[in-house]
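Task: sequence design from structure.
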């Protein structure tokens, strides 16, 4: 019993240290968002919040269309997340429960795209989007993210082990179409995987910068990442203002995680494969 208690003690100590290391950057970002820019380089570092959070945020509002950029980012992330969830779940269902020629080859080909650095496709993707007249549009900023190989892989693995073949056969005997089986049987079972993939895609899209910076040149179409980067154009950077904008831009991610954390944790504790 003493060994068990000692083992738990070290586990809790490790978790506390890991939690501190994970949360400290966010706390420091909040501290800097409430301080003047000079506090960024102060020695010793400032670790207590100041009183300039509202003042720094007002500077952000004077510098960039913050709320418009937040709305653009929210629209982009929601559309990408919903489309990725739909395509990935349908493709995962097909790969997991249907037999068709070339299935394994096609699945491996999709997985191989995960090892290709996205920067390699930046130029051809740009010319393709420009050819369709989608530059400076949210559609152009989101269309290349609709197909997500990780999402297809995750859904395929989850469905193959969570949805039994007998259940699908029983539904077919009752006269259900494949789409009805997907909507009525598969979707309720894969909700934890949906939450996991949704959070991953939403946060990844929210933090994506390179492609958005490449195709969005109109300030009215800026996402929050591009808008914040436009404030960092001089050698004399106001870090209090910049980190205040970053702090408020992070709040929606925290809200999304809190809304879906139960399903997310449920999927993680199952190893994402039930």
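Answer:
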């Amino acid at each position: 019993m003493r060994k068990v208690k000692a083992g738990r003690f070290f586990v809790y100590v490790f978790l506390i240290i890991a939690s501190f290391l994970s949360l400290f950057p966010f706390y420091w970002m909040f501290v800097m968002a409430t301080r003047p820019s000079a506090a960024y380089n102060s020695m010793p570092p400032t670790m207590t919040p100041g009183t300039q959070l509202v003042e720094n945020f007002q500077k952000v509002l004077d510098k960039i269309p913050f709320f418009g950029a937040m709305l653009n980012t929210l629209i982009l992330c929601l559309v990408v997340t919903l489309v990725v969830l739909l395509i990935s779940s349908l493709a995962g269902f097909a790969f997991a429960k249907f037999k068709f020629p070339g299935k394994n080859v096609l699945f491996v080909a999709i997985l191989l795209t995960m090892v290709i650095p996205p920067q390699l496709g930046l130029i051809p993707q740009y010319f393709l989007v420009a050819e369709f007249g989608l530059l400076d549009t949210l559609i152009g900023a989101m269309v290349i993210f609709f197909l997500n190989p990780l999402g297809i892989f995750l859904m395929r693995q989850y469905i193959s082990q969570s949805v039994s073949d007998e259940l699908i056969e029983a539904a077919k005997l009752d006269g259900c179409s494949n789409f009805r089986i997907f909507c009525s049987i598969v979707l309720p079972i894969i909700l934890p995987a949906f939450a996991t993939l949704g959070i991953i895609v939403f946060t990844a899209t929210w933090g994506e910068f390179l492609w958005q910076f490449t195709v969005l040149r109109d300030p009215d179409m800026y996402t929050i990442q591009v808008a914040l980067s436009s404030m960092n154009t001089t050698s004399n950077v106001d870090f209090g203002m910049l980190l205040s904008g970053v702090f408020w831009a992070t709040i929606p991610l925290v809200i999304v995680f809190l809304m879906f954390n139960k399903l997310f944790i449920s999927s993680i504790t199952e190893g994402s494969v039930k």
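The longest helix spans residues 2-33.
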